[in-house]
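Example record

The entry below shows one chain as it appears in the dataset: sequence first, then structure tokens.
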Amino acid sequence: MGEERNARLVTWTQNGSFETTFLRRLHARYGCPASEEVEQAIARPFNLLSLLFARIYFPTYPNGLKDIARFVGFEWSDPAAAGAQAVLWRSEWEQSHDPALKQELVKYNADDCEGLRRVTDFVRSLSTPPGVTTDGAAADVVHTEFMRRETPCIFRRVQFRLPELEAINRAAYWDYQRDKILVKSSRRLQRIAAQSRKRRRVKLRVNETVRCPDPVQCPKCGGPKLWKHGAASRTEFDVKFGSSGIKRWVTQHLLQAPV
């Protein structure tokens, strides 16, 4: 990212531009310190998260500020503090005006700013030329342009880390040769392959049969006279959990349905 001549407000926004909108409202309502850098920062905000997305991958599960800031070595004063807790503190302070709650809010916001500064310095250090050190010098950083490109689209012998994987790969390659190449060149193998593709329909044993009661009236007109022309059935498959394990359970529903 590098150094910039003009001051810029760095934010961490995951949903829209909440921070910048809020700061502009505060600036319009209360003004700001008589500083040209502050005015330039509010006028030219920058969302750091938009720079990280699909460009820099940290060894963290979410792309949250707390997770990445902890990775670069910063820890909040209260590790259990979060945005939801800050909203609760604010609500309680508006009712009680307790100075202790106000201090917790101020400290939490200050930690957020410091954590964002640490992450910004870390990202800035990634673009630092070789031989130049910064306070947020990145350690254990791998640049993708220097990584060995692994692609299966070249003809070479694959080096497996485990010998078992090599045996599996040889078997899969032999299956591919037999099914895709040799079968096309032999009518006998074509007949064998066609027979193997025919799936045998296995008739499952019915565990339970439920006979539905006959209707007492026609479901369409409500009349008492019914003409039965055939039976209907429905088979449901389920599993039952027992003390010794899991077993398949087949239930067949029978209905002498009028047509």
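Notes for this example: Strands lie at 9-11, 45-47, 208-211, 232-241, 246-255. The helical segments are 18-30, 36-43, 48-52, 65-71, 83-96, 99-126, 163-182, 187-197.
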